[in-house]
Amino acid sequence: MAALWNTRNLTMDDAPNPFQLPNITKFKIALCQLSVTSDKNQNLDRASRSIRFSVEQGAKLLVLPEMWNCPYSSDYFAKYAEDFDNRDASPTLSMLSEAACCHGITIIGGSLPEWDHGRLYNTCCIFGPDGKLKAKHRKIHLFDIDIPGEISFKESDTFTAGDQPTIVDTEVGRIGIGICHDIRFPELAALYRKRGVDIICYPGAFNMSTGELLWELVQRARAVDNQLFVATCSPSRNSTGSYTTWGHSTLVGPSGEIIVTSGHEETTVIAEIDYSNIQLQRKSLPLDDQKREDIYKFIDVHELNP
């Protein structure tokens, strides 16, 4: 099966401002919280089996974790990175493309280390049910943290930051993409809301410090502020590497309610999304109509500089 590696992210001209129900309003989503090892082939096999299980449960949209084909460690990123323009050098993308096509499912492919012209990116690839690469998102906000006695990590020492938001129209609605630390920035989620997304998917790998304090909080905040669905997917906590992940992959509804969440172990959670709940929430509490643009205003730089 031949995959297409060229992508096209949506522009402002593509995106409607008012919410419109997509053709499909109810479907199942799968969040595949994978255990990650230092064996790439084993990681690909785990993901493939989780995808098959999800399809058997009726999932139409599937989300994988951040950095699931290698341990989340600076020691592994470059070694496990793939050149997405060279299919022979991209076994992970080939597997995702074939799985999406074989099962007829939309896959939010977590994130992978990507080589491109000598630079390393933390990249999420989105595949449609035809196996074609619909879009890719390079992590915009790189995670640098230094909490004395707890954790010190600088993603910017290894990765180059992305410079584009990513919105993709799929068979299960309009999806906005962020990766882990991107969720900490409400402006990105507000931009996605303005551009008409139905759900924001954030593959992520919060650590034990920020996970306990913030993981659930920021997901619910992004969902309730923008009255849309938020889905997150993390590696399991027993994954290889010095960086210990929090886990707890979660789906949050447009009123900020937790629809489903996992523990920290390897698992796949399945839940139903009903987009009519977005319409209901926005009708009951019309936040857009209540905004005071005479006092403050949201500016989309892509709208100013198309």
Topology summary:
Layout lengths: L25 E8 L6 H17 L2 E5 L13 H4 L1 E2 L7 H13 L2 E3 L3 E5 L2 E9 L5 E6 L5 E4 L3 E4 L11 E5 L2 E5 L8 H9 L4 E5 L4 H19 L2 E5 L16 E3 L5 E4 L5 E8 L1 H9 L2 H4 L10 H4 L2
Parallel strand pairs: 1-2, 2-4, 3-5, 11-12, 12-13
Antiparallel strand pairs: 1-16, 4-6, 5-6, 6-7, 8-9, 10-11, 13-14, 14-15
Helix pairs in contact: 1-3, 4-5
Give short descriptive properties of this protein:
16 strands; disordered N terminus; alpha/beta; about 300 residues; six-stranded mixed β-sheet; eight-stranded mixed β-sheet; globular
Describe what this molecule looks like in 3D:
The longest helix has 19 residues, at 208-226. With 306 residues, the chain is of the alpha/beta class. The chain has helices at residues 40-56, 77-80, 91-103, 186-194, 208-226, 276-284, 287-290, 301-304, and strands at residues 26-33, 59-63, 82-83, 106-108, 112-116, 119-127, 133-138, 144-147, 151-154, 166-170, 173-177, 199-203, 229-233, 250-252, 258-261, 267-274. It contains eight helices and 16 strands. The strands form three sheets. Strands 1, 2, 3, 4, 5, 6, 7 and 16 form an eight-stranded mixed β-sheet that branches. Strands 10-11-12-13-14-15 form a six-stranded mixed β-sheet, with helices on one face.
